[in-house]
Amino acid sequence: MITVREWRERLSEERAYDLIAELIEKARKNRYNSFITVTEEMALKQAEEYDRGERGGKLAGIPVAIKDNISTQGIRTTCASKMLENYIPPFDAHVVEKLKQEGAVIIGKTNMDEFGMGTTTETSYFGAVKNPKDDERVAGGSSGGSASAISGDETVLALGTDTGGSIRCPSSFTGIYGLKPTYGLVSRYGLIAYANSLEQIGPMASSIDDLGLLLEVIAGKDERDSTNSGRSFKYSPAEKKFRVGIIKEMNADERVQEVFHDFVSKISKFVEVEEVSLPSLTYALPAYYVIAMSEASSNLARYDGVRYGFALDSLDSWTNYFSRVRKEGFGKEVKRRIMMGSYALSAGYYGKYYLKALKVRTLVLQDFLKAFERFDILISPTMPSTAFKIGELADPVTMYMADINTTPINLAGLPALSMPAGEVKGLPAGVQVIGRHFEENILLGFARMVERNEV
Amino acid sequence: MIDDNTVKHVANLAKIEVDEDEIQEFRRDFERIIEFFNRLDEIDPDVEPTYNVIPLKNIMRKDEPGETLERDRVLANAKFKENGYFKGPRVVE
Question: Half-sphere exposure of residue A367, counting CA atoms within 13 Å on the CB side?
Fold first, then answer.
């Protein structure tokens, strides 16, 4: 993994053009299938500008990879779906504008689960991402390509998106750092929607300081996202005596639990640690999936094969045309989620599923807020296991179960990061660090203290 | 619990064509997913629903015209277009 500081040292000795050209070559070989599109021309042009001294800013000359559900003007943005295989956005997402303003070098668009719907990046139309730690295993999902690109030294920084764990899961599986910001801190303008009340764009990197730096760049006011909080973020990691709660309901398999216990005993030397129970979490996972699928069914109604996206060879009557476009353009998991969402919202089931799920969401939020009266930080294993073998999870519901520790955070809109905590037979396992709304600096401060004490 | 007609009904609501041989597979998947959803039957919380966790109300921008995309850029991703318009499928038989 390459930190920003290491990259800047390289930049002081070599031309950005040569360094970027080297990364681009790696990205083009695509050993882990991290990239859907390599933005060679743009990256080399931006590197040249840096070499001529024309590219300043907080991320000057730093390579950044962008998940392929974030719109990039003039560069195809596929959501890893056949539906958008040839879609070229006419505008940049807010976060992409920010990256460009701060001098970043955009090296490519990363692979993901189709429309973000998955936990392994196996639902991608462009094939699964391989884990750089073991290429027979998945890198996690849905931001699998962003994680493998960092873990496999193909970029320095990356953007991911997190609807129910899609930044934290692949971070845990590949041994990197990833942060899902508080809902509303980062504008979603230009993020192709999956479940808009749950998702946020967030930074992925190989150190805590790099997460903080990238978050500082992408956070901030944007009128084009009506759920944007209008707040900005200045990276200033807190230093204090943290009160840490271990969430009783968030568990893992025996071996990952051992890694987690080691982490807890190490931090116990310098912080107060205590167990805390959040009983509503028992119902968080089904509530999350009801809400996510319901929102998906509405958001993905826009794919009609008329204005953009996959189209048939000729226009038929409207009833046939839309249904056929969507039959051929969407993959199986996307169809399942759209259809189950349509079911949950349909007449007679709205109260039983969708409304009930939103009430559970209230309980989850209340439980978290109550726990945060006693604690600054809550922790858990990020994932209940290490990375699965490619093809291991065939059944959809078994796959959903893997999101048990990550999805409650999105229901409550809280910030949470995953940081490497150890390994099980050479496979990384992460710890999830959760904080109060808009207290990213507490999270990052705690994680940085742990990082410095070499836990 | 889920029969073939339910799958067809939901597929029609979602405007996704499904083949006969796909119906069986979706039916099995849906049964599993609904069984998973039905865990919510165990509780009936007496609280208000939360649509959005960060309470924001009436977020409005100033009513000033901004930049819009040029017509050919808007149409650039469409396969079927005519005289500067999108061309859609026939609605009236």
Answer: 24
B40–A339 CB contact, under 8 Å: no
- Interface ipTM: 0.95
Structure confidence at residue B58 (pLDDT): 78
Test A365 with B17 for CB contact under 8 angstroms.
no
Q: Which of A34, A71, A142, A172 is catalytic?
A: A142
Contact A129, A32 (CB under 8 A): yes
Kindly report, residue by residue over B37-92, the tens digit of the pLDDT. Answer: 999 999 999 999 999 898 888 778 888 998 889 999 999 999 999 999 999 998 87
Task: Say yes or no for a CB contact (<8 Å) between B78 and A308.
Answer: yes
Of B51, B59, B77, the CB nearest to A307: B77
For residue A86, list chain B residues with Cβ-Cβ distance below 8 A.
77
Closest CA to B41 of A349, A248, A336: A349
CA of B64 vs chain A CAs: smallest distance (Å): 13
Q: Which residues of A touch B41 (CB under 8 A)?
A: 352
CATH architecture of B4-42: Orthogonal Bundle (1.10)
Phi-psi region of A205 (alpha: psi -120 to 50; beta: other; left: phi over 0): beta
pTM: 0.97
Number of helical (H) and strand (E) elements in chain B, helices listed first: 3, 2
Q: pLDDT tens digits for A307-365?
A: 999 999 999 888 899 999 999 999 999 999 999 999 999 989 999 999 999 999 999 99
pLDDT for A454 equals 53
Q: What pLDDT score was predicted for residue A363? A: 98
Smallest CA–CA distance from B70 into chain A, residue: A90
- For an interface test with A, give the residue of B21, B31, B50, B58 to mutate (most A CBs within 10 A): B50
**Domain residues of chain B, as ranges?**
4-42
Average pLDDT of chain A?
97
Task: Give the pairing of strands A200-205 and A177-180.
Answer: antiparallel
Judge contact between A430 and A259, C-beta under 8 A: no
What local confidence, expressed as pLDDT, does residue A455 receive? 45
Which residues from chain A sit within 8 angstroms of residue B79, using beta carbons? Answer: 305, 311
Would you say A166 and A402 are in contact if contact means Cβ atoms under 8 Å apart?
no
Q: Is A67 tagged catalytic?
A: yes
